[in-house]
Input
Amino acid sequence: MERKEIIEAAGGEARITWFGGKRAHHVLALGHGAGGGIEARDLQAIARVLPAHGVTVALVEQPWRVAGKKVAPAPRTLDAAWRALWPALTKKGLPVVAGGRSAGARVACRTAAELGAAAVLALSFPLHPPGRPEKSRADELLGAGVPTLVVQGGSDPFGRPGEFPEGSYELVEVAHGDHGFAVPKRAGTTEEETLLTITDAVTRWTGSLRE
Output
């Protein structure tokens, strides 16, 4: 059962949609990207599946999205809003895994150490702008400072798995997936199979955080 909560954050009101976990051992907080909201297929799939495996999922909408704006603000503004709502994510007294897709993954990586996140889940991490590999954001990922799982589409123009640098993080490839984890029909893989790859990886990884 989902529950919505409004939080005063830098830049306006943020919204958290909670999906309570059964005998939860972690909270997984997931922010959205710059081009969409929490309706993204991967975020929704994780919110449906993880609670049955002892993880409470919190889908976080940044103030600009709640206000109905079309363009995301600067990274420092996104980080400030994430910091402001962090106390609401920790109030259950459980370790919090910071995460998100695309721009939300960058926010999680940049703030994880200072906020005391237990780990980071980076979905479709935008390693670089499309066609601009020289504009690498690898330092954000490598600087997270906590256990990190990257789930990346095999055909993501923002960074294919083979482009990622060596590091202490774990990377799971979603075969043929683009930045939104959509897979072309010629690949012979259904959307359900793609989402299962994602949720299986996240379920396994969050379970390992208990060890």
About this structure: The first strand starts at residue 2 and ends at 9. The chain has a mean pLDDT of 95.
